[in-house]
Design goal:
- By secondary structure, the chain is of the alpha+beta class.
- The protein contains four helices and 16 strands.
- The chain has helices at 227-236, 261-269, 294-322, 325-332; strands spanning 16-18, 22-25, 37-42, 46-50, 53-58, 69-75, 85-93, 106-111, 118-122, 127-131, 137-139, 149-156, 160-165, 168-173, 187-193, 199-210.
- The longest helix has 29 residues, at 294-322.
- It starts with 15 loop residues before the first strand and ends with a helix.
């Protein structure tokens, strides 16, 4: 998905970036080039990147009844013990739901050796969500086929979890335990697989990390608001009256569920980058009064100093010529 259309300033975020407390794989490169470990590949499936999407195509292996498969993983060691953790991904598949109970066509799983487990199998029109180890919940919610969906899991330690599809709560409750939990080898795995019919899976992004504070403008929880946060603000921008979803609460300064130009003005006000000003944001050009940034204050102060110095020099010259009457008469003569 192209995310640069809203911007007139240039902000580049790599295909995979580990921000302060967020890992973001933007699917602009193959998983192995973005820090994922290849756990398994079976019978030569194919994958490629085009237009900011990772494409993974699998089929039945010739002469067998088994399907091709990719498996990748990333450990969550750096997030162990996080009190508020999220995973968000955007994707879709044309694979049939007949493979859901067999891990096909697509999987994203967050697990380890502990009791907390979140396992999602995603087909074109339905998903399978399994929770905990041993299993305490299995549900099969339906989804609209043929379009990408945003999936989001939020875990509040061991007290609560919420699973969303787009903006709708699909499942919530008390988990079996906190996640990612130290000593339980927490990891995230993704898979593309064929069970009975060839299919393609499209991944737009996979992000996970600490849940940012509401209305903070600090997506990556780094303690600063800068170009990295602006990249995500532009993506979550929904316009007035359009619910931006649970993943956008950090950019919703007025807590009205949308992310609009009023939030953009507030975002600029908390900008902390000492070097770069916020880029020009096309949807909000001309909205409200511009908020002076670091460099704008500097230009203003410099202009004021120059004007003041020029005025002082002018009056000094006048006083030099007017202070002594004899001097005035001598010059007049």
């Amino acid at each position: 998905m192209s995310r640069a259309l809203l911007l007139t300033g240039l902000v580049l975020v790599p295909a995979a970036i580990s921000l302060a407390d967020v890992f973001s794989y933007e699917c602009d490169s193959l998983p192995v080039d973005a820090g994922w470990s290849l756990l398994q590949v079976y019978c030569d499936p194919i994958e490629w990147v085009a237009d900011g999407w990772l494409h993974q195509h699998t089929e039945i292996c010739p002469g067998t009844e088994w399907g091709q498969q990719f498996d990748y993983g990333r450990d969550l060691a750096e997030f162990q013990g996080a009190p508020h953790f999220f995973i968000e991904w955007r994707m879709y598949s044309d694979g049939l739901a007949t493979g859901l109970d067999f891990g096909s066509p697509a999987v994203l799983a967050a697990g380890g050796i502990g009791p907390a487990l979140y396992h999602f199998v995603l087909a074109r029109d339905q998903i399978r969500f399994v929770r905990d180890n041993p299993i305490s919940l299995v549900i099969y919610p339906e989804i609209l086929p043929g379009v990408p969906h945003i999936y989001r899991l939020e875990i509040q330690g061991g007290s609560w979890y919420t699973f969303y599809v787009d903006r709708e709560v699909i499942s919530e409750g008390v988990p079996a335990g906190p996640y990612p939990f130290p000593g339980h080898d927490p990891a995230i795995n993704i898979r593309a697989k064929t069970y009975d019919v060839a299919n393609t899976v499209w991944w737009d992004y996979i992000r996970y990390g600490d849940i940012p504070a509401d209305g903070s403008g600090d997506y990556d929880t780094s303690g600063t608001v800068d170009a990295a946060d602006f990249y995500f603000f532009a993506e979550y921008f929904s316009g007035p009256g359009v619910d931006a979803g649970p993943g956008a609460r950090w950019a919703d300064f007025d807590a009205d569920t949308d992310v609009d130009c009023a939030d953009w003005m507030a975002f600029q006000a908390v900008w902390t980058d000492p070097v770069d000003d916020p880029p020009v944001f096309s949807p909000c050009i001309g909205f409200g009064s511009p908020i002076p940034t670091v460099s704008q204050w500097g230009v203003g102060v410099m202009a004021l100093l120059i004007t003041t110095c020029a005025t002082l020099v002018f009056f000094r010259r006048r006083l030099d010529g007017l202070g002594d009457p004899a001097t005035r008469h001598a010059r007049a003569g």
